[in-house]
Amino acid sequence: MKKVLNKGFLFMAVLLLFALTACSGNSSEKAGKSASKDGGKVSAKFGVVSYMSGPGAAYGEAITNGFKLAQKEINEKGDVHIELAIEDSAGKQEQAMSAAQKLMSDDGITAILGPTLSTEMNVVAPEADMNGIPIMGTSTTAEGIPQIGDYVFRNSLPEALAIPAALKKAVDKYGAKKVAILYGNDDVFTKSGFDTMKKAAEDMGLDTLTIETFQKGQSDYNAQLTKIKGLKPDLILCSALYNEGAVIMDQARKIGIDVPFVGGNGFNSPEVIKIAGKAADGLIVATPWFADKDDTKVKDFVKKYETEYGKTPDQFAAQAYDALYIYANALKNAGSTDRDEFRDALAKTKDFPGILGNFSFDKDGDVVMDPTVLIIKDGKFQQFE
Ligand code: 1QQ
Questions:
Q1: What value does the mean pLDDT take over residues 33-42?
Q2: Domain map (residue ranges) of the chain
Q3: Nearest CA to ligand 1 atom 8
């Protein structure tokens, strides 16, 4: 009798389990568990780590604005639904790490966007990769970031492409032969930019007269600049974030240095003009983004961004905007919030039409792109011909 009862009970339990499994559309999804599909539409949460307070906060402001505008449009269109969980890194490694850990411990998060700086990404990406959480930088441009692991991507123009393009145009235009290099030696991005500058100068047969360094937050650059002035370079190659870079240009012009500067991605910010004013004239940068480009998609985005935020989008806003669309596309193709399925769909991104052009990753999750070279003239970024 007891045996029969047990058998009956077991049968009922199996039946109940079967019914429960059949009802749950998400039962086969592993990570990103709390995200859901409703009526075939995938709904996912992405974590964002962004530099939103401190001396470089304008980078993070532009980036989060870009994400939010894209989010609004994507959700309105309705192919997929995206929720963003945004955390501030303050441009600091430790804070970026704790922000990322908070996001990574949330099972509902499918993938991460950011952090803003390569210095931050260098500590966050190995952790995300180890935990099998896809992560994509939208502004991280130092060498080696996507090579950290299979879950690590970027859609930002690497310094290795940007700097040689800017330098070549400047050398051709001015017939430059002698350069001086000045760089921040306590930041992953500014150091990587320096390595690229040094190599590019060598490759182009230029004479590097001196290599000078500075540190984050430095306010007085007169010692380095006075030495550089005495050596009479044709160009100054400077690897800096905007907050230090703008002050360097201001102090250089004040002591009578009037040669052009060639900078990397960090310099491609309207903040440089805001801080340095007239002294920013003569800065040459290469960029994937040019707001005055004669392209309908670019014009459309600029208009929408200006309406929403009352200012013109910069490179950082544009890259972030495209990045969320790239994520949305991968989510749609994966048809799932599972982190592995999302990663695989993301890696397959091919010729995705963004405002920065048609986007594909190379085999490492890195970017192939042709930059545009700009110069600041009369207080405005203009195409450098
Ligand atoms: C990096 C960068 C900075 C300019 C991002 C703001 O390119 O840290 O890699």
A1: 61
A2: 36-157+294-359, 160-287
A3: 117
Q: In the block, which residue shows the tokens 């994966």?
A: 334
Which residue of 49, 61, 92, 116 sits with most ligand 1 atoms within 8 Å of its CB, as the best mutation to test the pocket? 116
Contact 118, 80 (CB under 8 A): no
Helix H or strand E segment including 318: helix 315-334
36-157+294-359 and 160-287: identical CATH topology: yes
The pLDDT tens digits for 290-334 are 898 889 999 999 999 999 999 999 999 999 999 999 999 999 999
Class in CATH terms, 160-287:
alpha beta
CATH tag, 36-157+294-359: 3.40.50.2300
The owner of tokens 């230090």 is: 244
Distance CA 232, CA 272 (A): 24
Q: Is 381 in the pocket of ligand 1 (CB under 6 A)?
A: no
* pTM of the predicted model over 0.85: yes
pLDDT tens by residue, 318-377: 999 999 999 999 999 999 999 999 999 999 999 999 999 999 999 888 998 889 999 999
